[in-house]
Write a structure and sequence with these properties.
This protein is an alpha/beta fold and 351 residues long. The protein has 16 helices and 9 strands.
């Protein structure tokens, strides 16, 4: 039996002084890879995201190309909404719901509780993935969206630049918002627990829409639900929390219960290092657009990021958000190789 815990990624998250900095890339199993594009065009996105063997294949494609230190399940943060009774549709503009949730009657109609049988394709894919990843000593990251982000998506029904419908409910009918958020949090917790039971070694919460909130609204409408979600899987596997524009929330995030905080590129990494306690990991935070530049610029920015975090335990190199679709895969190779070349200052003391 291969012990994943002896791998670089989990040892770093546990605070060990590892021989090099671990690296993986958010949205690494995404549509910038030619083989990914070919499979999705051949099979169709909805089939790809609901067929265990195709999910596993899409998750493994970047592992074969780049050998990062962690894999992540290929899925979408809105899939658990289908277990609630909401049909998710996908087109070129992204995922959307035909009937956004904006009334008490619609909330009452949502399904609870979630059971493993309602999203079997994700859990079956995890079991397929683990067979290959265990041999590579590469951990598998399971994930869900953040409670606020998923709740907001249910209300808006599609991507939004202002969250006008969400904020209207928050301020005009806060009890309705909280009722929906509690249901969403319960659903996400069940799905997260199911992924862990299926074999995931780490979990990450993607809470990308909290950046629309003021600090006061974050404390009232987001923070309690993140805490509840993270607490639901406490003492099981390491938990990473990611949001954007998080520099204003760093004091709250440090107390949220995550084992590591993933910070976006707009957050000064030196500031994050100073304000996040050392018993909490940091992940991030190269600007994804840097991967559109030439090799030397990529190398320089990667090195600068590593130097800022040199000597900080529990650090994972990553982007500050996901890979952009127009990214050349060779840029990922440049990034990964540059991280691998870097030797932390503590390595001279590692026997």
């Amino acid at each position: 039996m291969v012990d994943i815990k002896k791998g670089l990624f989990l040892r770093a998250l546990n605070g060990e002084k590892v021989e090099r900095i671990p690296v993986w890339i958010m949205r690494q199993a995404s549509r910038y890879l030619p083989e990914h594009i070919e499979l999705r065009e051949r099979e169709g996105f909805e089939k790809a995201i609901k067929t265990p063997e195709l999910i596993a294949e899409l998750s493994l494609q970047p592992i074969r190309r780049f050998s990062p230190d962690a894999a992540i399940v290929y899925s979408d943060i809105l899939m658990p909404c289908e277990a609630m009774g909401m049909k998710v549709s996908f087109d070129e503009s992204g995922p959307h719901f035909t009937n956004p949730v904006r009334t008490t009657e619609q909330i009452s109609a949502l399904h609870e509780p979630y059971s493993d049988e309602e999203l079997p394709y994700v859990l079956d894919a995890i079991k397929v993935l683990k067979e290959e990843l265990n041999e590579l000593k590469i951990p598998l990251i399971g994930f869900v969206g953040g409670p606020f982000t998923v709740t907001a998506y249910l209300i808006e029904g599609k991507p939004s630049r202002s969250l006008g419908n969400v904020k209207a409910m928050m301020h005009q009918a806060p009890d309705m918002f909280h009722r929906l958020a509690r249901l969403v949090t319960s659903t996400l917790a069940n799905h997260l627990q199911a992924q862990i039971r299926a074999g995931c070694d780490v979990v990450q919460i993607f809470d990308t829409w909290t950046g629309f909130l003021s600090t006061a609204d974050f404390r009232e409408f987001s923070f309690p639900y993140i805490q509840e979600l993270l607490s639901s899987v406490e003492n099981t596997v390491p938990r990473i929390y990611f949001t954007v524009d998080c520099i204003f929330f760093l004091p709250e995030l440090s107390a949220i219960g995550a084992d590591a905080i993933s910070v976006d590129w707009r957050t000064d990494l030196a500031f994050a290092r100073e304000h996040i306690p050392e018993d909490i990991g940091i992940q991030g935070n190269l600007d994804p657009t840097i991967l559109l530049a030439d090799k030397e610029l990529i190398k320089g920015r990667v090195l600068n990021t590593l130097q800022i975090m040199d000597g900080r335990p529990r650090y994972i190199f990553n982007l500050g958000h996901g890979v952009l679709p127009q990214t050349d895969p060779e840029a990922i190779n440049v990034l990964v190789e540059e991280v691998r070349k870097f030797k932390p200052t503590w390595t001279e003391y590692i026997s």
